[in-house]
Amino acid sequence: MELDKYDRHILEIIQQRGRVSNQELADAINLSPSPCLRRVRQLEESGLIDGYVALVNARKLGLNLLSFIQIIMDKHTPERFATFEQSVMEFSEVLECHLITGQAADYVLKVIVKDMDDFQQFLLDKLTRIDGVSGVHSSFVLKSPVKKTSLPV
């Protein structure tokens, strides 16, 4: 799908204010409501807009410890990777899982828990019990000066 200036502007606004009404969006991009809505629907149907979410404050839920965990696998086989990926998908603590290159690790996970006790339980009772996990290196977030959800368009 070829994006014009209106489509890009729609994507920028929706990423910042997902609950914006069609009328407000149309006013912001200087289009009438009907063609604006048609453009939003085209962006949704094309897959450029994957969905809509609410961003929840983790600290207000008591989730205070954010970590990045590098995972080293014992074997580099599709089956081993599939087993690992399926396992971490089931853990609510895992916010993101990335297969990476350029490091000794095979995966990096973004994990959030309440505190260090919960982290220890997650690590020992869940993560290290996955077949094939041979090494784990954890880093803890002290501060997040940049935290975005919107992509440049």
Automatic annotation (TrEMBL):
Any GO molecular function: sequence-specific DNA binding
Keywords recorded for this protein, A-Z: DNA-binding, Transcription, Transcription regulation
Domain called HTH asnC-type: residue spans: 3-64
Organism of origin: Paraglaciecola chathamensis
GO cellular component terms given for this protein: cytosol
CDD domains xrefs: HTH_ARSR
PANTHER family: LEUCINE-RESPONSIVE REGULATORY PROTEIN, TRANSCRIPTIONAL REGULATOR AZLB
Domain of life assignment: Bacteria
GO biological process per UniProt: regulation of DNA-templated transcription; response to amino acid
Record protein name field: AsnC family transcriptional regulator
